[in-house]
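COURSE: Structural Biology Practicum
ASSIGNMENT: Worksheet 4, Part C
STUDENT ID: 0417
INSTRUCTIONS: Below are two proteins. For each, the amino acid sequence is given first, followed by its structure token string. Answer the questions at the end about the second protein only.

PROTEIN I
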Amino acid sequence: MTFDESRLGNSGRAYAGAWAEGRAALVGYLPVGYPDVSTSVDAIVALTQGTDGVGCDVIEIGMPYSDPVMDGVAIQRAGTAALERGVRTRDVFTAVSAVAATGTPALVMTYWNLVDHYGVRAFARDFAAAGGAGLITPDLTPDEAEEWVAASDEYGLDRVFLVAPSSTDERITSTLAACRGWVYATSVMGVTGARTQTSDAAPKLVQRIRDIDCGLPIGVGLGVSNGDQAASVGSTADGVIVGSALVSTLLAAEAAGTPQDLTALRALVGDLAAGVRRADRA
């Protein structure tokens, strides 16, 4: 497979590095601010380390939002608690800086209203200054992203847009043209959340994207919760995205009265990292 170097950007190069090792990249998501800002930053950095120094290749940092229409129960619970506990946009930049210091690309996944309220160019400027790689924008479509395209070009940031099984070939084509870094393929219709089995729509959607344009890496998300599922998705996709399962370890730790205990989180990252490394990509 050949990626278009001119379009890989900051985070796409991490995908390309994983591909050169014969595996899919592992992309981990956690929201900033849960169970508190300090612990959330520690947890986000822990995603890069796993249990033995082998962790995620790319980090997604979530910006909690009051109306998270795409998020499932686990992420909504954590995000709501973070907002109630006073998380602020500046805390996202703190988390981005901490991840960037590890050498791992840090993306922020955010609903567009938060960036628009901050000021698109100002957000791009401050995010880039913190060492951020780019944004994943689930509710912003390329045809409504003119201001973001301009700001991301100015500050050299990645633009990761989403496609779904319901996307037409025309929509996939236009979305791929607007992306820099990689494209986010949602493997199921509906909200985020760990599932007992991965969707059989994922390989079909990945192939549709490849048939249209194979110049960008393809990350698949929504539903992966363990190493076996990571291996399954990683056999066809260029990146395996995990969020709700990771958030659930933090929810469980707080419920147990040990919110700063990241043992389960690190263990899950280790299992997922092993999963993408044993995927059959023949």
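PROTEIN II
(use this one for the questions)
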Amino acid sequence: MKKIMKNAAFVMAVSAVLALGACSSNYSIADKNEAMFAPASRIDSVSYSLGMWMGGTILGSGVGEVNYAELMAGLKDVLNEKETRIQQNEVNQVISSYLMERQGFLMDKNLSDGVAFMEQHKTEEGVEVSTSGLQYRIIKPGNEVKATQDGDTVSVFYTGKFINGEVFDATPEGAEPVSFPLNRVIRGWTEGLKLIGEGGKIELVIPAELAYGPQNYNGIPGNSVLVFDVELVKVKPVKVSE
């Protein structure tokens, strides 16, 4: 699964960029002596790489939309040792408070969007709803060999999607099925994969409380309803001690 950098790491990264400019009291991006150290082509490649690093950090932080003009203005002011509009000791607070507010907004939106999606989805043909709130549609029931215990190990092919259809995880094409004990995965999988036998296929629509809950997890936003298409290849029953 894709991994999103934690907010704290993003704040530290931005602080590091600011500190770099602040600590280099004799540094200027217009310093002609830099040409004695490296040719312009190398400076260009290093500069572009720094831009990629910053872009990846910002993208991974979950900040969302940024004002490129203001982003560049802040960077230039620090590197050119100009007076900044925001004090450096306030930078972390500005960023962290925004990230917390945005995360709260997105969690509320995910919750309401998920409820609406599941209300509509449960009316579709073939969809069943368990007492836990799991929605499932058996595409192919498979044979009589089923997982019956939480400790049973299953081998599967799967695709995981958000409710907008975006794939966030999947078994790599051409790869072997993945195997895991049912007590090591989200509750929606533990329950849902007991409903089909080997060779079976099932669609699982898993509410957040049976998935990863309100917290962000490995690129999955908090309160996300998740949709999985799963093919059960093999069941290995857990050994019971006598």
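ANSWER KEY EXCERPT:
Q1: The chain has two domains: 7-85, 127-236.
Q2: Residues 127-236 form a domain with the Chitinase A; domain 3 fold (CATH 3.10.50.40).
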